[in-house]
Structures are given as C-alpha cells and as structure tokens.
Amino acid sequence: MLAARAVGVGFTLITVAKAMTSVAATTSSEPRGLHVAASRDVRSASPRQRLQKLVAVPGTVPSRVNDLLLLRPDTERPRSDTAEAKEPGCTRHVVFFHGDIQNFQEEMALQPEGAQWLSWSLEQVAFTLGRRFPDRYVWVIRASRMYLHKFSCYHNFVESNMFGAPEHSPNFGAFRHLRALLSHGMERANLQIPLQPQGGDDSIPSGFSLMLVGFSKGCVVLNQMVYELGGARADPQMSPFIKCISAMYWLDGGHPGGSETWVTDKQVLKELATSGVAIHAHVTPYEVCDPMRAWVGREHGHFIKTLEEYGACPSKKLHFADEPPSIENHFRVIQEF
User: Strands, E, within 72-114: which ranges?
Assistant: First the structure.
C-alpha cells in the first residue's frame, strides 16, 4: 500500500521535500574492507585521525550489510594501556541514522545537488556528534540503498518501498540487525571490549550503554524499533541489549509516505513509555509546520501527548520557531539538539 502511495506522490514529494535530493550512493560502491585514519595514541589525535570508515559490515545475515563511520572518543586510551577497560567511555556508544541528502563526503561532492550540503556529510555529522558526546564512541550508519540518488532506504532495518517509506511491523528484526552490526563493527575496528552479536547478560560488556539518534528519514529506524520494543523486551536473548539503550532522539523526522512519520499506535507507545528509555523529540517548522504535509505536525503532537498520558516525560523542543521553514534549519537541528 505504501509503495503504491509513494509512487503516486513521488514527484510531488520532491517539491514537498524542497531540496531533499540525496546523494549518489549505492549499497557499497567502494572496495570492501576497513579504511582507517586513526592514530594509535588517540588522546593526541585530531578528530579526523580518530575517524574510521568500515565498509560492508554484516548484520544478522551476511547479505545484510551497512557501511559505518566510527569516531573514537577523545578520551579513549591507546590499546597498550591495560587501564582502558576501566575507562568509562570505552563502553558508551551513540548511533546515528541519517536523512536523505547525507552521504560520505566524496559521494556528495560528485552530485551537483549534493555538493551544496557538504557541511552535512556523514563525516561532518560524526564530528558534530563527537563534540556533543565527547566521551562516547559515535557510529554513523549509512542507509543500505539510495533510490534515484535521492532517497535513503533503510531496508536492513525496516520494510520499505523504493522511496524509503516504511511499512512497520513488530518482528522485522531491527534490534537484532543493529546489535550484530555494532558487534561486527567493533570487531573490525579492533575495540578491546566488543559487544557479542547475540546472547544474554553475559554477552554484554560491563557498563555498556547506547544512545540512538535518528534525523529526518533516519527516524524510520527508531520508529521500527519502537514497534519491536515489546517483543524484544520479552525475549531473554534481546532484553539485556534493550536495557542498555539509555536514550532515543528523534530529530525532525520525515519520510515520503503519507502517514506514520511519528508513531501513533497507543499500545506501542505505552511500551516505549514504560521502557525507561529517555525520549527526546526535536523538531523544526520545516517538518511539523508544512501545510502540504499537515499530518506530520498532528502525528508529532499525538506522539508527545500519548507518551505523557502513559507517564513518560519526553523532552520536546520546536527549534527556529520564529524563522521561516528551511532545509538549512532542518539540518541545523543536528547541531542544536
């Protein structure tokens, strides 16, 4: 249903989404392997030297792969230091899911429409998040496919049509894919305290914590995880991993479908409200005040209200309320949240 709807509105959407013409990326056009630009002594390295690119990292099955960026914290100790295991930051992680325009910097530079947004490339976002969370590992997960070089599609995390509009379900396996992806990414990056790809309490590093951040289209992954939350919390193999998620950030969510930009299912939101996860919703007029997509604002309001009814205290903020809606301010929420 969503596929047919998105085809019907696809090119209207391009107008609606204004400059949402994304990058020239396919599943993995670069050679497989690990591209490392990290200094051995991370404490004296610059942000660029602490950034690693990991290409075609597998998730739950070998055919499900995503490219990753990893920015190591500036507090990380060199590998030869046996005290690293006691360093609090070594088990703290932030995961970011990007929007439609964003890709690796070299990919964006090849596209006339993408080049103007190079300041919001995945590398630049990693540095921004590194300043926001200086004591955490920052992971940026690239969408597995770009349709028409315009629309990011998170097919490995949620059932999606060609434009990346989601069809949510309670059992797609987004949490399982994320866990396996992080585990294999940590192994590739040679982190000393890796997460195991599956298992119970004994497979989780001591002190491991995780924050999830979705921006624009990337929020469809967070939404899918909310739909899976009840089942995952009841699963003895997954519940220890779920308990490590300390916060979820929705940053100006949007996608090309005509509904479900924000989760509105009350039973699903009840599960989120009682999970103990800190909930943050940051929006701009670009998404929630667009008269051509009025449902986005309504759904956002319903999301917040329902969570509050179930006893949650989501933090919420409308950024740039006194400025005209713009894609630049849409991106700027990444800096301001």
Answer: 92-97
CA atoms within 13 A on the CB side of 296: 24
Neighbours of 274 (CB within 10 A): 14
| C-beta of residue 165 within 8 angstroms of C-beta of residue 2 | yes
DSSP secondary-structure letter at 283?
E
CA atoms within 13 A on the CB side of 230: 11
Domain ranges of the chain: 2-79+88-336
Phi-psi region of 148 (alpha: psi -120 to 50; beta: other; left: phi over 0): left
What is the distance of C-alpha 324 from the center of its chain?
A: 26
Residue 11's pLDDT band (boundaries 50, 70, 90)? very low
In this predicted structure, the answer to whether residue 76 has a pLDDT above a threshold of 50 is yes
User: Which of 3.40.50.20, 3.40.1190.20, 3.40.50.300, 3.40.50.1820 would CATH assign to domain 2-79+88-336?
Assistant: 3.40.50.1820
Of 327, 321, 295, the C-alpha closest to 17 is 327
Local structure of residue 202 (DSSP, 8 states):
G
pLDDT reported for residue 77 = 58
Calpha distance 52→300 (Å, rounded): 35
